[in-house]
Amino acid sequence: MKIILVGTVPSSLINFRGPLIRDLVARGHEVYAFGIGLGSEHEEKIKALGANPVSYELSRSGSNPLSDFLATFKLARKIKSIQPDLVFAYFTKPVIFGGIAARLAGVKNVVGMIEGLGYSFTVQPTPMPLKAKVVKWIQIGLYKISIPLLKTVVFLNKDDPVDLLEKYKIRAKRVEVLGGIGVDLDEYPYTPAQIRPVTFIFVGRLLREKGIFEYLEAAKQVKKRHPNVKFVVLGKPDVNNPGSIKVDELDGLVQAEVIIYPGSVPSVQQWLKESSVLVLPSYREGVPRSTQEAMAVGRAVITTDVPGCRETVEDGVNGFLVAPWDSEALAKKMKWFIDNPDKIITMGDRSREMAEERFDVEQVNTKLLRLLGFNDLVKPN
Fold first, then answer.
1. Looking at domain 2-182+361-371, does it have CATH number 3.30.70.2690?
2. Given pLDDT bands bounded at 50, 70 and 90, which one contains residue 309?
3. Percentage of residues in the chain having pLDDT higher than 70
4. I want to staple 1 with a disulfide (CB 3.0 to 4.6 A). Which of 75, 85, 189, 349 is the partner?
């Protein structure tokens, strides 16, 4: 079979879809990996996976409908030239415009995976700006056009199809829930948690909706009573996003010795290995990759009781769930771990067990292949 994967940035194809691509190639299929603005370095990495790299144009965050639809017709021509048996698109814009492009190209077997509803569908502590409301309704309109064209739409958690399809009466032919996208457990091996000193770590985009400000406020509170405890921040500010933390704010917290901020790092695994507890106070997720990685390494998790995040934590078993926007509740759970360091180890051990049960990428991809309709296809050699 000829199979097209339509993603966004090259890194998502290589890092997140790499195991799936290798599996499909091992089964004897011809795979084409579509990424936005692929460079020669990315093309070589995709070729090393056994796939054919194809670069295409689509604005990841732009809101110019004319530009998006022009890109859709160009994408349709590229898809039609390959004449695939299956198109699998993931992330919001590839699902919307990639799905439409595939149907314009005459492909009937089109599957879309929505890995999270994003900012527009996330409940915020303050009223949503008018521009964001307009973007949300445009997005809903585009979903009403594109989702009925899909053979199957896949979500990562059980809340998203309710909050999107049922709430806005969007028709879908078939709906499936995958769970997390999975982690290579060999790439993220278990290591005993570091507890001297206790080290909390945040991994993610440094945006308001990811809970970065609640994490930093909790860190300030805890530092007053426990100055030796460490707080690590991994991620980049987004200067073009109004919800991003500013670089000078990070610099000020580093100078005040509240946080450790190394900037870009070559290995998230190494930082997780040297941590005690992952903290992700996000307002909403698909199923967060950072918590899956931390669980694989064997780390307890503090996260929020919101869609996606709650899929990764059993409260009091491998970590804690707190209400969103509540830095005091976050600080309280941090202090509990400081007072009970033995629980960091036992809860971390349970996290690893849960990662093996739920987030092993091999098991996840086996399920995904079934959802894509690969039940009767040749097994890899």
1. no
2. very high
3. 97
4. 85
Give backbone dihedrals phi and psi of 164, rounded to 5 degrees, phi first: -105, -60
Pairwise pLDDT comparison (371 vs 313), residue with the higher score: 313
Q: Which amino acid is at 30?
A: E
- Helix, strand, or coil here: 248? helix
Neighbours of 375 (CB within 10 A): 8
Tell me the per-residue pLDDT of 213-256, one tens digit each, with 9 for 90 and over. 999 999 999 999 999 999 999 999 988 888 899 999 999 999 99
**Beta-carbon contacts of residue 351 (< 8 Å; ≥ 6 apart):** 294, 295, 298, 299, 300, 301, 318, 319
Peptide bond into 94 cis (omega under 30): no
Whether domain 199-358 has CATH 3.40.640.10: the reply is no
Q: Which helix (H) or strand (E) holds 199?
A: strand 199-203
Distance in angstroms (rounded) separating the CA atoms of residues 115 and 348: 26
Angle at Cα 161 formed by Cα 160 and Cα 166, nearest 5°? Answer: 125
CATH 3.40.50.2000 boundaries in the chain = 2-182+361-371, 199-358
**CB atoms < 10 A from the CB of 61, how many?**
8
Contact assessment for residue 184 and residue 361, using Cβ atoms and an 8 Å cutoff? yes
For 249, the 3-state DSSP assignment is helix
Residue 360 and residue 188 in contact, taking contact as beta carbons nearer than 8 Å: no
Give the residues across from 202 on adjacent strands.
Answer: 233
Using one digit for the tens of pLDDT, what is the confidence trace for 35-84?
999 999 999 999 999 999 999 998 766 667 788 889 999 999 999 999 99
Supply the angle between the helices 18-26 and 361-371 in degrees, to the nearest 10: 60
Both tokens of 259, joined, read 């946080």
Distance between CA atoms of 38 and 206, rounded to whole angstroms? 25
Residue 220, both tokens = 């300030």
Question: Is the model's pTM score more than 0.85?
Answer: yes
Confidence of residue 305 (pLDDT cuts 50, 70, 90): very high
